[in-house]
Amino acid sequence: MIVTEGREIYMIATHNGSRMSNREHVSAPSSTNAHAVAAEEFADRARSRFEHEIVQLYVFGSTIRGETRGLSSDVDVLVVLDETANHEAIGEVLRDLAYDIMLEYGPVVELHVLSEHEFEQSLDRGNPFLQNVVQEGRSYAC
Length: 142
Fold this sequence. Notes:
- This protein is α+β, with helices and mostly antiparallel strands.
- The chain has a single domain, classed as 2-Layer Sandwich (Beta Polymerase, domain 2), CATH 3.30.460.
- The protein is 44% helix and 27% strand.
- The chain has a 4-stranded mixed beta sheet with strand order 6-5-4-7, sandwiched between helices. Strands 1-2-3 form a 3-stranded antiparallel beta sheet.
- A hairpin with a 2-residue loop joins strand 1 and strand 2.
- This is Nucleotidyltransferase domain-containing protein.
């Protein structure tokens, strides 16, 4: 949920029944690009935790183009998992990680998880979304 107070915009999210806010990230001035830091941190933690299961990880969209507009912009991430990985369990852990990153750095991490087969098959069929991710995104090869 996005809440506005005057000109401030901040996120309120719920996780495991707890209501949390990233308001402190909005109110405090930052000399670093929170989106780029959040993207790097998500990629590092995900690859560290699932180094054998993640085949490919892409960060794409406004974060890569340098067009973020405060916390109304998210960090777009695509994770491609090995066929033998437990996709449901890993996806849940990655969503929890994305939530943690949002609380720590401010931007919401918009997570997309595909199997390697789904990814390759969709690319072969000319899926414009995935073609764009591969062309414009930053790859964190595992």
